[in-house]
Write a structure and sequence with these properties.
Blueprint lengths: L3 E4 L3 H13 L3 E7 L6 H5 L2 E6 L10 H11 L3 E3 L9 H9 L3 E2 L4 H8 L1 H10 L15 H11 L3 E5 L8 E4 L2 H19 L4 E5 L5 E10 L4 E13 L2 E7 L6 H18 L2 E11 L2 E8 L6 H8 L3 H9 L16 E8 L11 E2 L2 E3 L6 E5 L6 E2 L6 E9 L2 H14 L1 E3 L5 H7 L3 H5 L6 H8 L2
Parallel strand pairs: 1-2, 1-4, 2-3, 4-5
Antiparallel strand pairs: 6-7, 6-8, 9-10, 9-12, 10-11, 11-14, 12-13, 14-19, 15-18, 16-20, 17-19
Helix pairs in contact: 4-5, 7-8
Bound molecules: adenosine-5'-diphosphate.
The site of adenosine-5'-diphosphate (ADP) has 20 residues, from β8, β12 and β13.
Keywords: ATP-binding, Biotin, Fatty acid biosynthesis, Fatty acid metabolism, Ligase, Lipid biosynthesis, Lipid metabolism, Magnesium, Metal-binding, Nucleotide-binding
InterPro entries: ACC_Biotin_Carboxylase, Acetyl_CoA_COase_biotin_COase, ATP-grasp, BC-like_N, Biotin_carboxylation_dom, Biotin_COase_C, CPAse_ATP-bd, PreATP-grasp_dom_sf
GO molecular function: biotin carboxylase activity
Length: 447
């Protein structure tokens, strides 16, 4: 097992990883920017190293400084959290070259899944169902027309290097295709320095359903069930739940089995998430994330298994603590992402939190790095905490969520808590009856 883990992240996820390390008796080092000197994870860590000024590129993305911090403190492993360097293959390779363990998959697996065309090809080869579309990059309009006619309109043009929902264009008819292709290529080139794009069938009313997987490092793969993350705004997840209200046990076992086998065949090691769009009973692969996800606590709630413990175990060569047959699903969990944002306009609302009171009681978990008197710096994303609620079934979970939201107090800044208080009272949400467009439509109505 590792002696000392360096946590290369900030905010709630840095604290989340720190807690897991403490439980496992592993020493912790955190790195932080000058803007985060007062952060909770810095206060609670065994050691901290300031690695630079506030902008991420000079601190949390500065590979050289992070490797230097490992060498100074003698850390033997790095947990990257999510975002920042968590899906940076070069970072994984550089750490390996310094004999420091990257708590995540190999650089090669990160690279494959980071290129969406390559990822889709790999998924297909591994027997994962994919969205019908081009078999690789498309450059010629003629070719685009042929493929679109074959799969049928509407189609979506997506950037191979894409991320965060950027570089995507929908063409509803052949007349839209030329402009969509050109715009997507130009946008992809400007945003990612790579103008490769591909075409796939545009699904009109899908749900976003993702499967949590793990490779144990010895060639075995397991799945921890699915999460439904269909409630999104601008492709950003807002509310996540497990299990999905749309799946039955047979569908869950089928897609889970396909994913676990794919992970084993790939020789993948560590945590991963295979994301699908789901429509009319069919799953369509869209991408794989080779890291821990923001929404991992809903899976932890229904399985009772600490996924960060498992990541650390696997990275240290100790394998998983569970086999597939040990993973049982119990009840229902919902996560609300609480952002420091105006709940109507979603503009960021940094500043000082004058009062922070979290709900408690059975089935309630709050993952947050903030506290009363904490000043939210304006440099990073606006997630200030996650409320995760568990109940024996979805009805009990929703009742408990409503109560927990009533107890939650964040004064001094604007947050998205009022949005969740609205959602929890909505009939469609109560029925689990929503697709990936539901939230945007709801917000547009201004209810
Ligand atoms: P990114 O990596 O940029 O987030 P994804 O491939 O994960 O890109 O897609 C992001 C979102 O775009 C999906 O959650 C979905 O809302 C939408 N999307 C992507 N592909 C399709 C498709 N074929 N049909 C309909 N919507 C899609």
């Amino acid at each position: 097992m590792f002696q000392k883990i360096l946590i290369a992240n900030r905010g709630e996820i840095a604290l989340r990883v720190l807690r897991a390390c403490k439980e496992l008796g592993i020493q912790t080092v955190v790195v932080h920017s000058t803007a985060d000197a007062d952060a909770m994870h810095v206060r609670l860590a065994d050691e901290s190293v300031c690695i630079g000024p506030p902008p991420s590129r000079d601190s949390y993305l500065n590979i050289h400084q992070i490797v230097a911090a490992c060498e100074i403190t003698g850390a033997d492993a790095v947990h990257p959290g999510y975002g920042f360097l968590s899906e940076n293959a070069k970072f994984a390779d550089i750490l390996a070259a310094h004999n420091i363990t990257f708590i995540g998959p190999s650089g090669d697996h990160i690279r494959i899944m980071g290129d969406k065309i390559e990822a889709k090809r790999t998924a297909k080869r591994l027997g994962i169902p994919v969205v019908p579309g081009s078999d690789g990059a498309v450059t010629e309009e003629k070719e685009a027309r042929r493929i679109a006619a074959e799969i049928g309109y509407p189609v979506i043009i997506k950037a191979s290097a894409g991320g965060g929902g950027r570089g995507m264009k929908v063409a509803h008819t052949e007349a839209d295709l030329e402009v969509a292709l050109q715009t997507a290529r130009t946008e992809a080139g400007a945003a990612f320095g790579d103008d490769a794009v591909y075409i796939e069938k545009y699904l009109e009313k899908p749900r976003h359903i993702e499967v949590q997987v793990f490779g144990d490092g010895f060639g075995q793969g397991v799945h921890f069930g699915e999460r439904d993350c269909s409630l999104q705004r601008r492709h950003q997840k807002v509310w996540e739940e497990a299990p999905s209200p749309a799946l039955n046990a047979e569908e869950r076992a089928r897609i889970g089995g396909i994913c676990a086998k794919a992970i084993a065949d790939l020789g993948y090691s560590g945590a991963g998430t295979i994301e699908f769009l789901y429509e009319n009973g069919e799953f369509y692969f869209i991408e794989m994330n080779t890291r821990l996800q923001v929404e991992h606590p809903v899976t932890e709630a229904i399985t009772g298994i600490d996924l960060v413990h498992e990541q650390i175990r696997v990275a240290s060569g100790g394998g998983l603590s569970v086999r597939q047959e040990d993973i049982k699903f119990n009840g229902h969990a919902i996560e609300c992402r609480i952002n420091a944002e105006d709940p109507r306009t979603f503009t960021p609302s940094p500043g000082t939190i004058t009062h922070f009171h979290t709900p408690g009681g059975l089935g309630i978990r709050v993952d947050s790095g903030v506290y009363s008197g904490y000043k939210i710096p304006p440099y990073y994303d606006s997630l200030i905490g996650k409320l995760i609620v568990h109940g024996r079934n979805r009805v009990e979970c929703m009742m408990r969520l409503r109560r927990a939201l009533d107890e939650f107090v964040v004064d001094g800044i604007k947050t998205t808590l009022p949005l969740f208080r609205d959602l929890v009272g909505n009939a469609d949400i109560a029925n689990g009856d929503y697709d990936i467009h539901w939230l945007e439509k709801y917000l547009a109505k201004g209810e």
